[in-house]
Amino acid sequence: MAIAMTLHLLAAVIWVGGMFFAYMAQRPAAMDLEPAQRLPLWARTFARFFPWVWVAVVLLPASGYFMVFKMGGFAGVPLYVHIMQALGIVMILIFLHVFFAPYRRLNAALTAGDIPAAGKQLGQIRRMIGINTLIGLILIALVMLMKHWA
Predict the structure, then answer these.
(1) pLDDT in tens, 121-141
(2) Rounded to whole angstroms, how far apart are CA atoms 112 and 141?
(3) DSSP string, 88-114
(4) What is the separation of C-alpha 21 from the centre of its chain, rounded to a whole number of angstroms?
(5) How many CA atoms does the CB half-sphere of 150 hold within 13 Å?
C-alpha cells in the first residue's frame, strides 16, 4: 500500500504541479515573446511534459484502484475516494482531448508555418490546461480536507 500511495502522490504532484508551472509561470513569461518564438517554445515544452502526463494518466488510476481493492472495494471507501475517482476521470478525459486534438493541430500548424492557426490551437490548450489545473488543485484540497474531517 505504501508503494501504491507514493506512486499515486508523485504522479499527481508531477501532473498538477507541471500544469500549475505552465499556467502560472511559463505562460506569463512567454507572453513577452513574439508568436513565432512563443508557439515553438510551447510545442517543445509540451513534447517534454506530455510523456510525464502519460505516466501519470496510467499510474493514477492503476495505483488508485489497487488501493481501493486492497481496502475491500468501492463499497467500503469514503466519499472523498469516489470524488477523487470522478474528478480524476474528468481530468484524464480533458488531457486526452488536449493531446489528440489541439496539441496535434498545434504541431501540424507549426510544421506548415501557419502561426495564426498554431496560436488558435495554443489558446484551446491553454483553456483546457487552466480547467485541469483548477480541477487538480480543488481535488487535492478537497480530498485532504475530507480525509482529515472523516
Answers:
(1) 999 999 999 999 999 999 999
(2) 42
(3) HHHHHHHHHHHHHTHHHHHHHHHHHT-
(4) 11
(5) 11
